[in-house]
Amino acid sequence: MKPTLFVLAAGMGSRYGGLKQIDGLGPNGETIMDYSVFDAMRAGFGKVVFVIRHDFEDDFRRVVLSKYAGKVPCEVCFQSIDALPEGYKPNPQRTKPWGTNHAVLMAKDIIHEPFAVINADDFYGKESFQVLADYLKSAENTRGQYCMVGYRVCNTLSENGAVSRGVCSTDKDGYLTGVVERTHIEEVGRKIVFTENGKDTVIAPNSPVSMNMWGFTPEYFEYAEEAFRRFLEKNANELKAEFYIPTLVNDLIAEGRATCRVLDTPSRWFGVTYPEDRPQVVMKLNNMINEGVYPAKLF
């Protein structure tokens, strides 16, 4: 059975503005998602499931899904603030989504095979999809043997400002032991540093960081649902608390219920974090087309 690609496309780009997910950046109006779908299909994924919001379903179907018709098997599910287990209600003043792991839960009745999770507005690179697909194919009929693609931090920086990254620690066998969020990473001189409490700390260029590119088997939904109920016991009335993927993965590792292999990739991650990033993304995509990595028209 081929693995499924699950794309988190329900968010708004607060710093960039507008719906980054349907912003045409390629020469024929391709979105960053289109490149991810193209890479996933050639790496051996079987279908794509998107989680979106109801309020831009029409635009999403018109701009994104229409180009995949007859070429890529696709399904859609929806994330909403009131999509909670029975017995729970959100604070009526809440406007913020419940986070990435809540978005993943929206696919629990759709996905029944090993699956990858990615962000819609991040460019991950073909090598990353290949190592992820290969791992997930080998994970069929297993439980709790997860993975994430660990990008070298030097391949994930923006030229237009500091970035936040989940810096990963691993054991000698390459399994994840923890993820620490560093909220201010940038290149200073010829060194990469993160700033915390006013202090700069140098980080090695090849340090693995999480760019929210994960691989799971279907029982992950069971763990996520159980953990989400515990989360809601404490946070159901909160306005901003979010249920994140790394939090649950860390907990499952600590409890001995799962392992998470960190897969190295030489791919360069990029995305439109700041408006000033957009021209550079367009240039990078054109360069890869000229080098033959991608066709000028993907679909």
Radius of gyration: 19 Å
Number of DSSP strand runs? 13
Termini distance? 24 Å
- CATH architecture descriptor text: Alpha-Beta Complex
- The unreliable regions are 12-17
Q: How would you sum up the global shape?
A: globular
What percent of the residues sit in helical stretches (DSSP H or I)? 25-40%
- Total domain units: 1
What is the string of SSEs from the N terminus onward? EHEHEHEEHEEEEEEHHEEH
CATH level-4 homologous superfamily: Spore Coat Polysaccharide Biosynthesis Protein SpsA, Chain A
What is the overall number of helices?
7
The biggest beta sheet reads: 11 strands, mixed
Model description:
The protein has 299 residues and is of the alpha/beta class. The chain has a single domain, classed as Spore Coat Polysaccharide Biosynthesis Protein SpsA, Chain A, CATH 3.90.550.10. It has helices spanning 32-43, 57-63, 100-105, 126-138, 220-235, 245-254, 278-290; strands at residues 4-8, 47-52, 74-78, 115-119, 122-123, 145-152, 163-170, 176-188, 191-196, 199-203, 208-216, 259-265, 270-271. The strands form two sheets. Strands 1, 2, 3, 4, 6, 7, 8, 9, 10, 11 and 12 form an eleven-stranded mixed beta sheet that branches. It has a two-stranded antiparallel ribbon with strand order 5-13. Strand 8 and strand 9 (191-196) form a beta hairpin. It is globular. The two termini are 24 Å apart.
